[in-house]
Amino acid sequence: MTDRRAVQRPLAGVTARNVTRELLAGVTLLAIAVPLNIGYAQIAGLPPTAGLYALILPTIVYALTVSSRQLVASPDAAAAALVASSIGGLAVAGSADYATLALAQAIIVGVMFLALSFFRLGFLANFLSKPILIGFVGGLALDIMVSQIAKMLGVKIDSGGEFVEKVGQLFGGIGTANGWSVLIAAAAVAVLIGGRRLLPVVPWALVVLIVATVVVVVTSAENAGVAVLGEVPAGPPQLSWPVIDWSMWLALVPSAIALTMITTAEGLLVSRSYGEKRHYPTRPNRDLFAFGVSNIMAGASASFTVGSSTSRTAAMDQAGSRTQLPSLVLAVGTLLLVMFGTALLADIPSPAIGAIVAVAIIPLLGIRDFIDLWRQDRFEFAIGVVCFLVTLFIGSIAGIVVAFVLALINLAKRAANPAIDVLEATGDPSESLLTDAPQGTTTAPGVIVIRLAAPLFFANGDVFSQAVKGAVESAGAETVEHVVIDMEAVTDVDVTGAESFAALQESLTEKKVSLSFSRVRGDTMARLRHLGLLTDQRVYSTNREALAALAPTADAPSEKRKR
User: Fold this and answer.
1) Are residues 395 and 427 in the same domain?
2) 72, β-bridge pairs
3) Out of 104, 157, 432, 509, which could bridge 169 as a Cys pair, Cβ 3.0 to 4.6 Å?
């Protein structure tokens, strides 16, 4: 395992032996990122330079500050769609005000990342479970797909409109589809999908752009109605700061929260998974800091919100890259492009860009993931579907709000129904639990040992209390003299849980039944004392000890399942 200092050193892992491979991987990354970022900028309603500028200064500061050796930072399709849907209601796409709001949004996102890093709050992203992410990103992806299909057909629609409106405009404009556009898009899709299967190491997106551009120039397809990218201003990004009214800053906060949480959840997950896969350490709070400074730099250099790119990270891993050097190669290559090569971009056909983006976001639709969820857990499948539909038909902000509400409902549902088990005494010396004990079961004559397999808190306190009372009643209250609570799995007790314990003890005392504890964890013991729950109660180190004291003739609880 690499030591701590290696994690903090920029470009950790670069050696004389692998530097050539890393440089070549950077060229591959450049070929992949340039066409995709041009497309993502268009999705966001911004000029192509906004996507290209994201690959320069934001990429440099990210590569030099992140702990992950492989995670690639860049705007992605979901973030671009979220930018468009959130700013589209505040300004006209393509206008100067719109671009300024995109800059301000990126800066707010950056500040939020820095706050998450400083206060070590990255765990909040854990509330976005896999079904929620699948549904949210899938809804955004389908919304994007409609716009890209329109671009591939040469049909003009309002890309900033609602999903239903865009679908209506697409079907209504089918009769105006341009044959050349359809032909270019179909050929591009065939090359992208077929080429990836035959030779996955080839940057087919770049090949498609070059060939399609040559075809448009040679055949003058633009005169036949094929839309092209148009003139791209030359020159490096200029540092600036968005100047907007404070009310507009506040209006951008909800969408910035959504962008921050989505990137945090996906970015930290991908960073950790590749760190474990390639055996190097990562530091989540440092990664959040890197996202923070890169987004502030994006907002100050005419770009838009930067997140993590799972597809590009995977491509770099397949290319053998294990460092951030390819990201620096990407930044230098893009800088040279915007300074000296923008004329090469003017004749790129929009149908080809639409095909590249459409193929790239197909996995984001989550079709296979939804099928897996259906097979694994119908409730979580329903969560994903609800999040998908809300995001698609109501909006991305509503989608993220619903996502958090569903996460809390799911959490409460599981927490409110913990496993509560009665232990059975046999000759087996094990102390493990017995589940599904029938009604009327006692652990030993006059004694019931009950195990709660969860922290005791407000969501399950009453459930646990009722379960204990029910076990006593079903066993015959007149025959039960002692109840022992096995606390091995209880890691915490809150005030409401303590009140449930106190009420349970009072109820058992009225029935002349004593309440004791066994196998209490050290930190939980201190908590019980602090909450005043260890007054007259006895505490046993094991269930065997408890039974020896309360029912001397009984055997130890068994892990064998009683049928």
Assistant:
1) no
2) 309
3) 157
